[in-house]
Write a structure and sequence with these properties.
The protein is α/β, with parallel strands linked by helices. Helix content is 35%, strand content 15%. The chain is built from twelve helices and 14 strands.
């Protein structure tokens, strides 16, 4: 088995690559390093620092691949409202490039990692049979990518699977990124003696997936009889839901630090985002083993082992108006 992983130096992509190597698979991949770190790439994987939008540059790596895991994107949902171009180009256009390369390479199955943002403002728990109603540019780019996957795979005889992991966290995540990964941002700030930043009143409801609970089901997508299916992958049930303010309280309990500070709500932010993973439980034997409390302890310990870092404002703010968060324009995080 040979798998090709986009975003191999990123969080999810690196973990998939590591598990693939552990299973004895041949693993290759690429990463533009827009949000990835070279040290994430596991030993035993061959990769190149190149962009998904340039298929000619990685033709030699995708050749003879059985399965593609397309994890690469610019997963900046909140930022996409103010930086739509960089998010669109590194999400939708990246998908076009990888699909082109995969079709030409004769890949058997294309696994696309989508986003919970596809469900928009609908009433949770979200299920796979709900329509996609994206509410921001990032979500629109992900839904457009899904449509491209279904269309081009169908036209060219390539199997596809769409997986929808959500709010993944844990070791290996870029916790010094000020634009995404709310748990990592809060932990990094708390360890610097700074208060967690909350947009709005913190009543937004989320469920969080520890990385080790996600990689197993995703690896099964390579060989299981699931062509054409879509799967939510993440904890479900009321006991796994938490508000953003509740998340901050848990992190402060583990790290100490000042009370949260509140900024105006970000435009278009979805208030409730939780899903049902019943389908993944039935068809992929999905069984989450890490509750949020246990996962946060492991995450905090990992960040502490590396030490807190200054936040890197590595992406442009393309739209600057009165509703653009000051935390970004003034680099307050």
């Amino acid at each position: 088995m040979k798998i090709f992983v986009t975003g191999i130096a990123g969080f999810l992509g690196a973990h998939i690559a590591r598990e693939g190597v552990a299973q004895g698979w041949t693993v290759t991949g690429i990463d533009s390093l827009l949000g990835g770190c070279p040290e994430n790439v596991p030993g035993g994987a061959e990769w190149a620092a190149t962009d998904c939008r340039d298929p000619d540059a990685y033709e030699h790596l995708i050749r003879d691949a059985d399965v593609v895991y397309h994890c690469a994107a610019a997963p900046y949902e909140g930022l996409s409202v103010f930086s739509p171009q960089v998010v669109w180009e590194n999400t939708a256009m990246s998908t076009v490039g990888v699909l082109r390369a995969a079709v030409n390479a004769g890949v058997r199955r294309f696994i696309f990692c989508s986003s919970m943002s596809r469900y928009g403002h609908q009433v949770p728990p979200f299920t796979e049979d709900m329509p996609a109603v994206p509410a921001d540019p990032y979500a629109i780019a992900k839904v457009a990518s899904e449509q491209l996957v279904r269309n081009l795979c169908g036209l060219h005889g390539m199997e596809h699977v769409i997986c929808v992991p959500h709010n993944i966290y844990g070791p290996g995540q870029r916790y010094w990124d000020p634009f995404r990964n709310v748990a990592g941002i809060m932990i990094n700030r708390a360890l610097q003696g700074k208060p967690p930043v909350i947009y709005g009143d913190g009543s937004q409801v989320r469920s969080f997936s520890y990385i080790d609970d996600v990689t197993g089901p995703l690896l099964k997508l390579a060989t299981a009889d699931v062509a054409g299916e879509t799967f939510n992958v993440g904890p479900d049930g009321d006991d796994e839901e938490i508000t953003i303010l509740g998340l901050a309280r848990q992190i402060l309990y583990l790290t100490g630090g000042p009370e949260p500070v509140f900024y105006p709500a970000r435009p278009g932010e979805v208030h409730y985002a939780t899903c049902s993973s019943g389908k993944a439980r039935r068809m992929l034997d999905y069984r989450p083993r890490w509750d949020l409390g246990k996962g946060l302890v492991a995450y905090v310990e990992w960040v502490e082992s590396l030490g807190p870092r200054e936040f890197e404002y590595h992406l442009p703010i393309e739209i600057k108006r009165e509703n653009t968060p000051r935390t970004w324009t003034e680099k307050l995080i």
